[in-house]
Amino acid sequence: MSQESNTAPAPKRGVPLWAQIIVWVGLLGLLGLLAGGLVKAKNPILTVGSSVPDFTLPLFTGYEYNNGLEVKLSDLSGKVVVVNFWASWCQPCASEAADVEAAWNSYQESGKVVFLGVDYVDTEPEAREYMSRFKLSYPNGPDMGTRISQIFNRNLGVPETYVIDQQGILRYTQIGPFQSVAEIQAIIDPILAGR
Amino acid sequence: MKTKNICLLILSLVLISAILIPTLAVSAQQPTPSDDEVNAIARQLYCPVCENTPLDVCPTTACHQWRELIRQMLAEGKSEAEIKQYFVDYYGARVLSEPPTSGINWLVYVVPPLAFLAGVYLLLRAFQTWKRAAKNTAPGTELSGLPVPGLVTGAPPSIEAARPALDDKYVERLEEELKKRK
Fold it and tell me: Which of A124, B36, B68, B125 stands 20 to 30 A from B154 (CA)?
């Protein structure tokens, strides 16, 4: 009897190789995705000195730029671009709105600086009321699907302003509101002067 | 008497008017979507600027504006799907409480059921292995005549039944070693 039990074939054990490969590849893939997400979350803000990816801002009705209803960043090459994120529900945005408009007015005639107002996660009626209240005359449009804000800062808060130089390089990041027109000009003027 | 009747008639007319006019005015208005109707859609959406806050319970001014927008769109006759699509277009797919089954999002729907099925499969295999091991152990125990603690194998083996096991080399060796220890 004991010999019989010794010679009996051992039962098949363990998971088949193909299943093991699938499981390990799947696990490694998920870990890769997780790692990618963590790296993105660690560096959410576009850094100063880096090239700004191209984007298109659709404009609110009543606004236009060069007879167009949208503005493409790549079309503004050779100009300093000031991208200002705001929202009608944001109190600090209201505190800087008049200064931003005044700064735009001071550069508009030169044609060397373009201001873009990007309305971040807002409702259109309230956004219109906000633009009307502060008489915003520079091109303004909604951040559709938060695609533009995610280029600059994946954890965007408002107001935030990004200044891009003539070569499309990010030169300055302002988190929070500006306190005066002079403060805005002090940032733009050196970039205009090529410094 | 006649004057009294006229006064009563006028009074009755005034009373009837007072009751009917507001009712007629209300029925003439466009139906305003109720809070429940608005919240039925709002709870399927998340506040685009707050962390993990459903839109129906979000207390911020922005969320109030969004709920009013839903009410306005409902009043305009927009469907639930159209309203949700508007929110996705404006604020991105992250506002949806259930991510759409497109792009990388499909992993959310595929990975948990797959992990569950894999777990069930592994458990079944483990049970089968344990069952087989128990089957293999039980007959050996009966033959050897040595009781295994905690294992009930029916009636205790008789001396005759245990006799062949005494020939087993392993048992002999075990007994020898036990004797040596004594």
Answer: B125
